[in-house]
Structure formats: structure tokens, C-alpha cells
Amino acid sequence: MHRRLFPRALAVLALVATAATAGAPTATAEAPTPAQTRLHATIDAILADSRLAGAQAGVVVVDTTTGQTLYDRNGDRRLIPASNTKLLTSTAAMELLGPGHRFTTDVTGDGVRRAGLLSGNLYLRGGGDPTMLAEDYDRLAAEVAAAGVRVVTGNLVADDTRYDRTRLGPDWTWDDESYYYAAQVSALTVAPDTDYDAGTVIVHAAPAGQAGTRPKITMTPANGWLRIDNRAETVATGETTISFEREHGGNTIVVTGQIAVGQAEESDWMTVWEPTGYAADIFRSALHRHGVRVLGRTVLGQATPDDAKLVARHDSMPLADLMVPFLKLSNNGHAEVLTKELGRVLSGSGTWAAGLTAIGEYVGDSGMDTGTLRQRDGSGLSRRNMIPPAQFVALLSAVRAEPWFDTWYAALPVAGNPERFVGGTLRSRMRGTAAADNVHAKTGSLTGASSLSGYATDADGHVLAFSVVLNNYLPSSVKGLEDQIAIALASYTEKGTTTARLAVPTAPDSPRVPEGLECSWVKPAVC
């Protein structure tokens, strides 16, 4: 297990110690400056909003240049962080796996090869790559053909044994199971596009040419692993009400509702039951296209023999590049794969328990007080995750000293930047304010839980680490309040002597997100 240097960890703890104080807002041990007093009053006014009546709010702000705590309300209160949990997972992965870490998917054979005939099994071994596309499996099949293999007398074996067979995270709710943000985790899987939502398929419904007939249903990628039960209808006119749902325990996707003639197609991302079989189906079809016949059946979950000979190989992008789709789009599947990969690499066990142990050791050595928090998964989908805002700020302050920090910082969503892989889940928020193209932060939402933690550069050029975690509110969204706080931080300056309270900044409205869905999960991501 990689260990941190404790003297540095203690220094980090000293830097952010004042962020762990509970109760009313405080600045530092010293008397607050007039500017800090104004900032206190501003954030207090934001948190007094009626949308937070009866709710819990934790907010901590630390100036990483001076180590001063500029604001602390309920900094030690354990709150549900939602996708801010990914801050722990991503930083641990960058340090313990390294920015250059890659996932390898390979094809091997365990029999004798002679004159185009492989007398044995062909093994497709997954290395956990969450970015494998159908075209990557096609390239692997092309390599198999180029190696001279034309007939395989044995089986196609899909080896997903790098990780355990626990597919769904602890505490995930049953009604999320068919939606792409709760995809099953396997070491061998397929993503339908370059958002890299592994273990999902995109289902499309296009209207037929005339009313009274079934819409045309297609899938990306095309496959034989899932079945469509088309109960939808094409109508002459009217509102589109197409809905997709995968039945529990299987791969039948039921399509219901209506779509009018001439309307644009409707699409949605749906999870797959047993991603290993999905990957094997895609690969077997690719082999067929390239003239490679497998005479045996497809076998799932069997380990590759040690003496199997390499036939083809695919390496993923490095982890440094994967951080972009992971953090910009808040990809839950990436977080869970990285958690299991950490367990596999560091302790030989590709399980959630082993991975979370590794994450806990890293963040603990980096300055977080792990005795004050609980992490149950890599992504934040579990409602049993509990992390105080002060501990997020401790981590955010500490990782600024890491050699990989600039890469990781750039992968965080950037407020108000319209480019999807720059602004990410913040691209529609805080536009036209001091926070735009300034605040780099991780978003998070579950029903009744919202968070924003990251960095704001203030008007004096100081980098402020902040965490806003809001729980138990009743309105559909409190994102605007998070944005107001971030804008206030980006506008903060120690210059001037007036003690008047700053005007509460106005945050542009973010697009409304359906009740119960994390904003970053909605396709396309909107907040």
C-alpha cells in the first residue's frame, strides 16, 4: 500500500484545522477583517433563503494562500455529499494508480494454432476499461483475423474476473437500476459513445411514416444481447411521450408512449443486465464480420489460463485523459471502476471494500480526518455516504501540492464555460458573472441533497477552497444558492475598508432538472 509522508499530512492539517469548527460562522482565530465581515454577512444572507427553511447547510471557505478560514458554518456536520464523493475517488486514483495508468483488454488463445485453425478456446479478458466502444472490439477482432485465426474450435470465453461479481453498489436504490447513472460494474463492458457510460446502450425511437404503426426502434451499438418490446405508437399529431424502461433481472427494454409523424427521434441511455455478456456479444459479432468463426458457445466469467497466448490487445487512454469525461460529466461508472481498480492494484482484490480502504488511506494521509466521515461507494450514489464540508476543504487544500494537480484541476467542471468538455456539469451555471471561467468545482445532487465543492480565485488572485453541502430541503433545486456563494467568492477582495454587507449576487437560473435526478445525470448534462 502506498503511504503518504505524515509530516506533510500534519502540515496540511494545521493549514485547514480551523475549518473543522462547528457552529456559527467564524473567520479565523484572529478578529475578522472588514472584508471577511462583509463576506460572512453575504453568505449568511444567501443561506437565510426560504428554500433552506428546515434544511441543513454546511459551508466552509479557506484561503489556500494564507491558510485562513474565511467562513465556516456547520463545517464538521456530516452531510450527504452526492457526487462530491468523486473528489475522494478521483484524487486517490490519480495518486495511487498514477496519471499514466491504463486499462488493458486482451484476446488470447489456449490451444494449438495451425493453418488458420485455433484448436481450443478464445479468451476475451477484461481489464476494467470503462471506455471500450464497439469500434474497439471491432479492432480487436480485426487483429485476431490479421493474426491468421479463421476458425476457433472451442468457446469464446468472456473473462471478467479482474473484479468481483458484485455488480451494483451498496445501498443503491432499486428504482435506479435501469438508468445509466446506476450501470452494473464489470471488468468487461461496453460504452455506447464517447461519454463512456459503460454498461449502457442508447435506445432510439423514430416515428414511422404513417400514423397507427409502431415507431422504428434501434440501438447504439446494435447488438443481440438486448430485446425490444415495442408497445409505442406513431400518431398523426400530438406531444411525444416515448418512454424506455428495462425490466428488472433481464435485458428486455419496453418502449411505450407515442411519437408524431415527422418528429425528431427520441433517445435514452439504458443499463444492461450483465455487461460481460453484452461485451462478448459485441465482440463475437465483430469476429464474424472479420471472417473469424467460433464453433463453440459463449461462456461468461471464466478465468483465462496462465499459458494462453496473446493474440490481440487494446490499451485505454491514460487515467489523466479519463479524468475529463469522468469529472466533467460526473460519470458514476468511472468512479466505481476506479474504486475496484484501486482495490485490485493495491491489494489484489477488485472489490468495493478493498478500493474504499485504499481511498480512505490516501485521503487520510492527505489531511482528511477519516474518523469523521463515511464513504460507501466511489460515485456518491449511496445515501449512506456522509462527509463534512470541512473535510472536503482539507482535501482540496492538500492536493494543490500534488504533481498531478494541474491535470486534475483542469478536469473539474468550469463555471459558465459552454464547451461540454470544459464546462461540464457547470457549463450552464454562473454565466456572465465573476465566477464564469473562474470557478472549478464538482457538482452533486440527489433528491434533497446538493453540493458544490472546489476552487474560486478571488479578486485579489487568491485561490479559495470551498465546500457547500445542502441537505433535507424540499424544493426541486437549490443550485442557485450554491452559485450565489461561488459568485461571492470570485468577487471577494480584501481591498477597501467599508463594513457594509455586500449585495447578495444574482445567479442566472439553471435549467430545471426533473425531481429526483442528479443534474449531471440528465442527458445532455445541464448543471
Explain this structure to me?
This protein is α/β, with parallel strands linked by helices. The chain is built from twelve helices and 22 strands. The strands form six sheets. A five-stranded antiparallel sheet has the order 2-1-22-21-20, with helices on both faces. A five-stranded mixed sheet has the order 18-8-6-3-19, covered by helices on one side. Strands 4-5-7-17 form a four-stranded mixed sheet, covered by helices on one side. Strand 20 (440-446) and strand 21 form a beta hairpin. Helix 2 (34-47) runs antiparallel to helix 12 (479-491) and helix 3 (86-96) crosses helix 8 (352-365). The longest helix has 16 residues, at 332-347. The chain is globular. It starts with 5 loop residues before the first helix and ends in a 36-residue tail after the last helix.
Any key phrases for this structure?
D-alanyl-D-alanine carboxypeptidase/D-alanyl-D-alanine-endopeptidase; signal; 12 helices; 527 residues; alpha/beta; 22 strands; five-stranded mixed beta sheet; globular
Q: What's the pLDDT, averaged over the residues?
A: 90
Q: Looking across the biggest beta sheet, what order are the strands in?
A: 2-1-22-21-20
Low-confidence stretches: 1-28, 497-502, 509-522
Main sheet summary: 5 strands, antiparallel
| Shape annotation | globular
Radius of gyration: 25 Å
* Contiguous helical run count: 12
**Main structural class:** alpha/beta
- What is the CA–CA distance across the termini? 37 Å
How many individual β-strands?
Answer: 22
Helix content: 25-40%
Strand content: 15-25%
Keywords: Carboxypeptidase, Hydrolase, Protease, Signal
GO molecular function, one term: serine-type D-Ala-D-Ala carboxypeptidase activity
Family: Belongs to the peptidase S13 family.
Pfam families: Peptidase_S13
